[in-house]
Design a protein that fits this description.
By secondary structure, this protein is α/β, with parallel strands linked by helices. It has two domains: 181 residues, FAD/NAD(P)-binding domain (3-Layer(bba) Sandwich); 121 residues, FAD/NAD(P)-binding domain (3-Layer(bba) Sandwich). The chain contains seven helices and 19 strands. Strands 1, 2, 5, 6, 7, 8 and 19 form a seven-stranded mixed sheet that branches. Strands 10-17-11-12-13 form a five-stranded parallel sheet, covered by helices on one side. The structure holds NADPH dihydro-nicotinamide-adenine-dinucleotide phosphate. NADPH dihydro-nicotinamide-adenine-dinucleotide phosphate (NDP) binds next to helix 5. One of its GO terms (biological process) is removal of superoxide radicals. Keywords: Disulfide bond, FAD, Flavoprotein, NADP, Oxidoreductase, Redox-active center.
Length: 315
Amino acid sequence: MEIEKVKCLIVGSGPAGYTAAIYAGRANLSPVLYEGLQPGGQLTTTTDVENFPGYPEGISGPQLMEDLRAQAGRFGADIRFGIATASDLSKAPYKITIDGDKEIETETLIIATGATAKYLGLDDEKKYAGMGVSACATCDGFFYRKKVVAVVGGGDTACEEAIYLAGLASKVYLVVRKPYLRASKIMQERVRNHEKIEVLFEHNVTGLFGENGVEGMSLVKRWGEPDEERYTLPVDGFFLAIGHKPNSDIFKPYLDTDEVGYIITTPDKPCTKIPGVFAAGDVADPHYRQAITAAGSGCKAAIEAERYLSEKGLI
Ligand code: NDP
């Protein structure tokens, strides 16, 4: 297997990975960054980002990531396509396998692999994958112009996706399992005031049906209660927005994670229990999961990497 030695390896290309690359590049660490499955990360599937400081009019998620990528490139970050498929963090230098056929030996590792959308776990989600089921409204909403769609979830993502889809579709059902939305107040208001969005509180989806793609969903209202109600609704598209799973699997044998899989770091720092290995962004953040907090932790990780290398006399 081909082996390459580097001082600073960054895995992942969301705001955390790119920001780490900007800082590591400016600190002359010659960082190598592998972009992973979804170059640019989750923000490439979002619409307008209104809360990233510095953009009073907002900016599109893909544009923000393109700008961060260009900024990292400007300071010499070596940005590559490739997916980290295995890790050996038993001793330094740490070994990361890329695409199963190349090994990077690195003195410092910044894990910024983010998180991936969750599904309900229904067989029908697999059956209709690419045929009406999606976890990305921005990617697939276009196919549902003037059609009826459902979005599952009650958080900010679900509200954001419902609002985005309402701009295209004729009707959007927001299916929420609790009697309230978990989303921020402003998003709740926007959903409530949108004439095309109907919120179905205390509803669970138990299945999907259709001949050549999704044509409807089976619902249970107030599941398990004396007044439980089961019925179906016709929908053309079915969007999941029920949260994310941190992409930490290949590091789990070596690092501590919580029960969901978020990598545990020192409080307020991106340091893991292994010296020289840092975790930044959503893969280590069950609390905030914002672009700006991810960027902040990417910055911290690069600063820590620089200090570690300096203390070891490696730079
Ligand atoms: P959240 O974890 O906040 O919300 C997930 C939602 O999905 C909850 O309503 C949850 O229900 C529901 N859910 C989870 N599992 C199931 C299931 N099996 N069946 C039905 N419903 C289910 O995730 P989000 O992705 O919405 O947000 C993640 C973070 O990102 C949050 O901190 C959010 O504020 C932030 N965010 C911010 C945005 C912005 O500021 N512009 C945009 C998007 C996200 P329940 O409430 O019952 O647990």
